[in-house]
Amino acid sequence: AKAPMRVAVTGAAGQIGYSLLFRIANGDMLGKDQPVILQLLEINDEKAQKALKGVMMEIDDCAFPLLAGMTAHSDAMTAFKDADVALLVGARPRGPGMERKDLLEANAQIFTVQGKALDAVASRNVKVLVVGNPANTNAHIAMKSAPSLPAKNFTAMLRLDHNRALSQIAAKTGKPVSSIEKLCVWGNHSPTMYPDYRFATADGQPVKAMINDDIWNKDVFLPTVGKRGAAIIDARGLSSAASAANAAIDHVRDWVLGTNGKWTTMGIPSDGSYGIPKDIIFGFPVTTENGEYKIIQGLEIDAFSQERINLTLKELTEEREGIKHLLP
Ligand code: NAX
What we know:
The strands form 4 sheets. A 6-stranded parallel β-sheet has the order 3-2-1-4-5-6. The N and C termini lie far apart (about 40 Å). It is built from 11 helices and 14 strands. The chain is of the alpha/beta class and about 325 residues long. It binds ligand NAX. The site of ligand NAX has 28 residues, from helix 1.
């Protein structure tokens, strides 16, 4: 039998945590033959810790055969000890009257502390996925706060945006999602992201020719995917949770187990590809193999796409400027 993998999850008593933990323990993320130990972090607050205990009681009550252990923490230094995978879901939500700048700063503090803790105690191969918003910039901060870990181990979640785009394209073309390949989302996890189906195929046939409608792309597809989070809040009264948890599972599963040559989207530190400055955490099309991701190279960037990429890059550059003084 395989040795258990340690999976740390922050914000474990939150909405996304409630959809995420059960699936990890069920083997959906790391495989049905891979035992897991859950190391769950919540804020040092009586209510949050009590709620976490409640979630853990329910996880116990599932009697998951793959669950080899589970612990509750209020300190990142113990929660991240020897972690093989760290899902950084907990973040400071925007409160009433809070400016974007305040939000960035509050989160910068959290992700500086957590980056340092990962640096100090996690496995040297820890795979980190930041879900908590602003996800790309939070991932950047954690990465910069963990100088002894490889920068490539820090990623941000664009997969929900990718999956949203996939489902919209499937609906538009009338093809099953499973037939669609070579889709990607560039940039920031925010409404400025650029979902791109110019290279996509359905059953091997070009999707762009099937749709053949640039107005639909610009006026329907991009805003629908970009504003999907807001549409969910409007409909449900709560932000996306199960779909976000599902995307986190997809992201880590593909990273660890490989995509077999298929494209997916990950928010990763740029290596300079496509003119994105090094270390900016940016959504790129990637394939994964043996636990490593590789950016798809050589894609043509037309004028419209360049404009969209510049827009989302500008936002990320501004976010980075906004927290620069807080970085170690
Ligand atoms: P909830 O508010 O339900 O849960 C967050 C939990 O995190 C709370 O229980 C809170 O106590 C905990 N927390 C806060 N700071 C913490 C810290 N420093 N250490 C440990 N725990 C901490 O939010 P939820 O709906 O679960 O969303 C979590 C985050 O995901 C939010 O930042 C949200 O904006 C973000 N999202 C990101 C998405 C993405 O695609 N990247 C999509 C979904 C989601 O909106």
